[in-house]
Design a protein that fits this description.
InterPro entries: Ac/propionate_kinase, Aliphatic_acid_kin_short-chain, Aliphatic_acid_kinase_CS, ATPase_NBD. With 389 residues, the protein is of the alpha/beta class. 42% of the residues lie in helices and 15% in strands. The chain contains 16 helices and twelve strands. Strand 2 and strand 3 form a beta hairpin.
Length: 389
């Protein structure tokens, strides 16, 4: 079965193909505001990849709300429902809907399956998903924690089963660190706590988003006359690493600037790593301890110094790093253990494979095997081998 994968960001769309093997060279196109330009770029890619022979298209959707807890086929009704919840994650939902519409125009006969980042966190217990707010906020407005980066955490839960025999670690904290960043506590492969909340603004310091923030700050700014539109723009586009450093939202640029003596950039690095370590401690409390720590995402996979800054603060939890393993060059394989053999907590670097989860979801839906969500280890029982490797 050949499956096309679409992973839309805020301004670009990453495309890949999964069949007998994984596409070694994912393609990126611009999410142009002009539908004709986007359609032409997508059609050119489909033609170059012989997309007309594909069996299905899978697309990442960041927010599924309470409505979508399993992958589904894209229909007009589904798209209408997604538009109603787009204000929960405007930075991500609008580009995803734009991508979905372009796919349906350029490949009208191809079934499209939607995979939701929030679905993996449906196992959150009530104490984790409930906010201490008036009950009418919960009952009438749907205010609750959803969590994100679930497609990445879903793969991590599956991958650890083979890396840590016989059935994977019991208590895992995973850090997905990129332009968007979050952490999750996995108990026997299931999500029981996560740092992002109702929207992707909460939690860790990100490229342009602030993470943890006193809500009173927002009220004070509104009272001073800052418009909701300006507030939303500042929170989504001018905060995080960019806001602290004044240099860039790209951690690589910020790190290089810090190394040259830029104090604001150095503060950005320190604050981002401090918050990450702080949240590992908090997530470990929800697990009752820590057996395994995982780094993934662009920063998690490629910045040995950031991993070191985080782990150095977690010695009290039994986290140790093997310097040679952690500092391995670019030729070092991605999926690898970076803690000493005798460390009480195993520390891993795993490649972010949201595409794996999407491809699995497409196969399940199209084969009629879209089993009820079980999370973690139940996934491995239904599909014991990766469908794309």
């Amino acid at each position: 079965m050949m499956i096309l994968i679409a992973n839309p960001g805020s301004s670009t769309l990453k495309l890949s193909v999964h069949g007998e093997s994984r596409d070694p060279s994912p393609h990126t196109i611009e999410l142009h505001d002009d539908p004709a330009v986007l359609d032409r770029s997508l059609r050119d890619w489909l033609d170059s990849r012989e997309g007309h022979r594909a069996d299905g298209f899978g697309i990442r959707i960041v927010h599924g709300g309470d409505r979508f807890v399993d992958p589904v086929l894209a229909t007009q009704t589904v798209m209408d429902d997604l538009r109603k919840m787009s204000d929960l994650a405007p930075l991500h939902m609008e580009p995803a809907l734009k991508t979905l519409e372009a796919i349906r125009r350029t490949a009208p006969g191809l079934p499209v399956v939607l995979s939701f980042d929030t679905a993996f966190h449906r196992t959150l217990p009530e104490r984790a998903r409930r906010y201490a707010v008036p009950p009418e906020w919960v009952e009438k407005e749907g205010v609750r924690k959803f969590g994100f980066h679930g497609l990445s955490y879903d793969y991590i839960a599956w991958r650890l089963q083979s890396l840590v025999p016989p059935a994977g670690p019991r208590r895992t904290v995973a850090l997905h660190l990129g332009n968007g960043a979050s952490g999750a506590a996995l108990l026997n492969g299931q999500s029981i706590e996560t740092t992002m909340g109702m929207t992707p603004l909460d939690g860790l310091v990100m490229g342009t988003r602030p993470g943890n923030l006193d809500p009173g700050v927002l009220l004070a700014l509104l009272r001073k006359g800052l418009s909701p539109e300006k507030l939303e723009s500042d929170l989504n586009h001018r905060s995080g690493l960019l806001g602290i450093s004044g240099v860039s939202s790209d951690y690589r640029d910020v790190e290089r600037s810090a190394e040259t003596g830029n104090r604001r950039a150095a503060l950005a690095v320190e604050l981002a790593s401090y918050r990450a370590a702080q949240n590992v401690g908090s997530l470990s409390v929800s697990l009752g301890g820590l057996d395994c720590l995982v780094f993934t995402g662009g920063i998690g996979e490629h910045s040995a110094s950031f991993r070191r800054l985080v782990c150095d603060r977690l010695d009290f939890l039994g986290v140790r790093l093997d310097s040679d393993r952690n500092d391995g060059g670019s030729d070092e394989k991605i999926d690898r253990r970076i803690s000493p053999d005798d460390s009480p907590v195993t520390v891993w670097v795993l490649e972010a494979r949201e595409d794996w989860t999407i491809a699995r979801d497409v196969r399940r839906v199209l084969s009629g095997k879209n089993l009820p969500f079980s999370g973690g280890k139940g996934e491995g029982k239904a599909f014991p081998a990766s469908p794309i490797e």
